[in-house]
Amino acid sequence: MLRTHPRKFALHQILTRSSPPLSWGGPGVPHFNRFVAGVALRERMPAFERMLWRACRGNVFLRQAEIETPLEDINSGDPVYKSVFIIFFQGDQLKTRVMKICEGKKLSSVV
């Protein structure tokens, strides 16, 4: 088995899996040191993504995945389909914007 340098391995993961950049300190690689994760209704995700992109001017990295099994709505007991998301960003100003957008869209988020 060939041994690869950890930085080269991390860069390979970034390029092949489209995952957020890792903080390994290489020149020219952005460092995303903060994140917010949460759950939202599938219907709200496109509008949420657009609003997030416009408000943060493209300085955030959003990943989302659909939850395949329906969850039970707390109020009505009906099955609802949701998506899980994680937002990577850098700095306190972007954190404030991201949190305000999550609160405004009534999304369940965890810092």
Automatic annotation (TrEMBL):
It is found in: Membrane. Keywords: Hydrogen ion transport, Ion transport, Membrane, Transmembrane, Transmembrane helix, Transport. One of its GO terms (biological process) is vacuolar acidification. It holds the Pfam family V_ATPase_I. GO terms for molecular function: ATPase binding; proton-transporting ATPase activity, rotational mechanism. InterPro entries: V-ATPase_116kDa_su. Coiled coil: none annotated. One of its GO terms (cellular component) is vacuolar proton-transporting V-type ATPase complex. It is a multi-pass membrane protein. Essential component of the vacuolar proton pump (V-ATPase), a multimeric enzyme that catalyzes the translocation of protons across the membranes. Required for assembly and activity of the V-ATPase. Belongs to the V-ATPase 116 kDa subunit family. This is V-type proton ATPase subunit a. The gene is LOC108252852.
